[in-house]
């Protein structure tokens, strides 16, 4: 974090890069197009609520993950691209010390609190918790001296919520960016990504950092291979001739409202700790399968063999896990499990760990094939996407019957299709030949969406769309 440097609002792009490489850009508010009309409605909402105009707007995009699901929190690389759907936050400072929040959508009720006394209630999955995470993240790690300035905020989002396209992190990232901008902090994109990955955990989900990383580090025109510990992001050009189509299964899944997501994080952690203990390591020091692999110096296929030799493909009771770790339930609750997973009595270890190691391997294969520019690249990538879906469905058990239907319907006209994001509902991403994209979409409309009453009257483009890689978070000057 370049705390000593001022936020370079008044300098050219070139100088900005010299002052602190890699800052989220500050740019003119778009004067035309779709983004501009959304900004106009947001400003209207802002004015009707606060009787004034915003000083600036922070924008953070959602993402679609092409491959590498449920591996980021194990320390493994992922392969997302930002989409052009986003969260926009209009902001002005106030002198009351209050954080006032309104949303353009009535379903998200207004909220107000003392900005220097933020409390995030994990037990209530309120929308404003994500804004509070961003505020808290910058307060804790942004290097602010003294008190935070009060803010009036209006929010507008068009990322379908609870659908695996990372609406939650876009809201956290836009909020953190807004608070940092108000306080003149120069925080690099990488630092924003890491701060936001940590602070989103205040809502209770133990995420890995993919969503926040791509929201800040995305660049238009390329997907990114994102590695963790340390954070590293590499642009990867996707092969010519491929279109990525996102299809919403219309089954929402709110990650903060259930323990499904954290249960998987814990299953991987328990598998890691039992394997660490088996080879004589101090198991409490190991949280992530990726860390264990590094210490053991084994390849991913070797780790898969290790998993097969260690676990059976059946659930393990908490008592059995304690026996394998020579520990007590109290200690397991304290050292390993999150608050919302302590009630769970059975954990699957073999299948979850096998998914993680095989999926981590597929991510690197995906990158290798993209770089190879081989003639069979599209077919090879499609095959990896299909294998990834099968693994999330069968080994990780995080698919949904509607997602499986969409993936099955994609077999004839796509090269490969898979659930994207955390799953249990939400979206699927399919890779199709550009020339087949329209026919493919019509096929899904006929066979899936025409049978879904909830789509009636909705724009089909809001549930079924192609997406090109979009740029990352920025500030719009007003
Ligand atoms: P995902 O990140 O896959 O979209 P999550 O369950 O992680 O799904 O987060 C969804 C939650 O994010 C919503 O329930 C809501 O609280 C919040 N959210 C998403 N979009 C908006 C929005 N436009 N305005 C307010 N809150 C939003
Ligand atoms: P979504 O579905 O967008 O909330 C979640 C996690 C990611 C990653 C994916 C699964 C958060 C903020 N996001 O994404 O880190 O683990 O699931 O690959 O926890
Ligand atoms: Mg989310």
UniProtKB/TrEMBL annotation:
Among the GO biological process terms of this entry, one is: galactose metabolic process
Reported EC number(s) for this entry are 2.7.1.157
Q: Where is the Galactokinase N-terminal domain?
A: 44-92
Domain GHMP kinase N-terminal, by residue range, is 129-217
Q: Which InterPro entries match?
A: Galactokinase (IPR000705), Galactokinase_CS (IPR019741), GalKase_N (IPR019539), GHMP_kinase_C_dom (IPR013750), GHMP_kinase_C_sf (IPR036554), GHMP_kinase_N_dom (IPR006204), GHMP_knse_ATP-bd_CS (IPR006203), Mevalonate/galactokinase (IPR006206)
Pfam families hit by this protein: GalKase_gal_bdg, GHMP_kinases_C, GHMP_kinases_N
Q: Which UniProt keywords apply?
A: ATP-binding, Kinase, Nucleotide-binding, Transferase
Q: Which domain of life is it from?
A: Eukaryota
Q: Does the keyword ATP-binding apply?
A: yes
Q: Can the keyword Kinase be found in this entry's annotation?
A: yes
Protein name in the entry: N-acetylgalactosamine kinase
Organism of origin: Halocaridina rubra
